[in-house]
Design a protein that fits this description.
Blueprint (H helix, E strand, L loop, with lengths): L3 H39 E10 L2 E5 L4 E6 L6 E2 L4 E5 L2 H64 L5 H62 L1 E3 L4 E3 L9 E2 L4 E7 L5 E7 L11 E6 L2 E13 L25 E8 L13 E7 L2
Antiparallel strand pairs: 1-10, 1-14, 2-9, 3-5, 3-8, 4-7, 5-6, 7-9, 10-13, 11-12, 11-14, 12-13
Helix pairs in contact: 2-3
Length: 351
């Protein structure tokens, strides 16, 4: 059995140690409470904030079998890098067929051009024939007038006058026939011009269709639209894809990273555009990031919901609303550590 003095000494030591520990804990609590109080007094704070980046889907604009995939999970890519290839043989055949149709239209237009030249030559020949026929008619008319005068003077016989009159009628008929042929030739030239216009319009349509087919050929090569990082790979070679199908996601690395902080409506009076912001991520509690406020939402988050609340229903419970605030992070060292969706804590100095 231990002496009484030894037990008393042990109790004193335990009491002293306990007092020291309690004092240290109280001091730590005071420091923590003082820091929180200082933050609440000098800063507007929220922990309802997440890192955000543009995450766009990689979409196939044409359907077909995947020939090859050129990226892996979480791989960084540059603008214009080939991500995957789709079998383009069918689209090439269609594009070649459309190009052949254009060549056919060009050939038909050339044929019509040759026909128009032939018709124009016939037209010129008819014009010359008409001039000659008009000269014959004029000469025969003068001959008829002379014989008519002689017949009236009893110096020519009726038979002579009739022969001259018959020749004049023949020449006039020939002249009328040539004039009809000239009008028909003009109509044929006009018809050729109309057909050429139709063929030119068809050529324009086929050219547009051919360009569309060539676009489809280009769409079989899916490239990165900007610098970024690809998400999880979920497609393989030989897989069939449909137009509009999502083949993956690409995180945009060209645009600055920003934070979407949901402040209470009672905190908005402390927020101003271009105000400096301090950001601490849960993933890196010992590192501080900085940014600035670039926009404040024109409405609360609940106003943009599918079914916004209606306070006129009679079941009204007042709830403090949150307003999204966009904070663009500085492009300094460490900002690239943050990933979209990370939780962060945001502090804005009150002014």
């Amino acid at each position: 059995m231990k002496p009484k003095s030894d037990r008393s000494l042990t109790d004193v030591q335990l009491t002293r140690i306990t007092n020291w520990l309690a004092g240290i804990a109280l001091f730590a609590l005071l420091l923590w409470g003082g820091r929180i109080l200082w933050l609440r007094i000098g800063y507007t704070y929220t922990n309802d904030a997440q890192v955000t980046q543009y995450i766009n889907p990689i979409i196939s604009r044409v359907g077909g079998y995947i020939v090859s995939v050129h990226f892996k999970d979480h791989q960084s890519v540059k603008r214009g890098d080939t991500l995957l290839l789709i079998d383009n043989r069918e689209y090439k055949y269609e594009a070649d067929q459309a190009s052949a149709s254009i060549h056919k239209e060009n050939a038909e237009i050339s044929v019509l051009g040759s026909q128009k030249e032939i018709l124009q030559a016939e037209h010129e020949s008819l014009e010359k024939s008409i001039v000659a026929a008009q000269a014959r008619v004029t000469k025969q008319q003068l001959e008829y007038d002379r014989y008519k005068f002689l017949f009236d003077e009893k110096s020519a016989t009726a038979q002579q006058l009739e022969d001259i009159k018959a020749s004049l009628d023949v020449y006039k008929s020939e002249l009328a026939s040539l004039q009809y042929k000239l009008e028909a030739a003009q109509d044929r030239v006009y018809d050729v011009d109309v057909k050429k216009g139709v063929l030119h319009a068809e050529k324009v349509r086929l050219s547009a269709a051919a360009n569309r087919k060539h676009l489809d050929v280009g769409y079989t090569v899916i490239r990165a639209p900007y610098d970024g990082q690809v998400g999880k790979r979920s497609i393989e070679k030989g897989q069939m894809v449909n137009p509009g199908e999502v083949l993956g996601f690409l995180v945009n690395a060209e645009t600055p990273i920003w934070v979407t902080a949901n402040f209470k409506e009672t905190q908005l009076r402390y927020l101003n555009l271009d105000a400096r912001v301090k950001v601490v991520a849960d993933a890196y509690p010992d590192e501080t990031f900085y940014g600035r406020i670039i926009s404040i939402s024109p409405a609360t988050g609940s106003s943009f919901s599918l079914l916004p609340p209606d306070n006129a229903t009679g079941n009204f419970v007042k709830i403090v609303q949150r307003v999204p605030v966009r904070i663009e992070l500085d492009k300094g060292k460490g900002a690239t550590k943050l990933r979209s969706g990370m939780n962060v804590n945001v502090s804005v100095a009150k002014k």
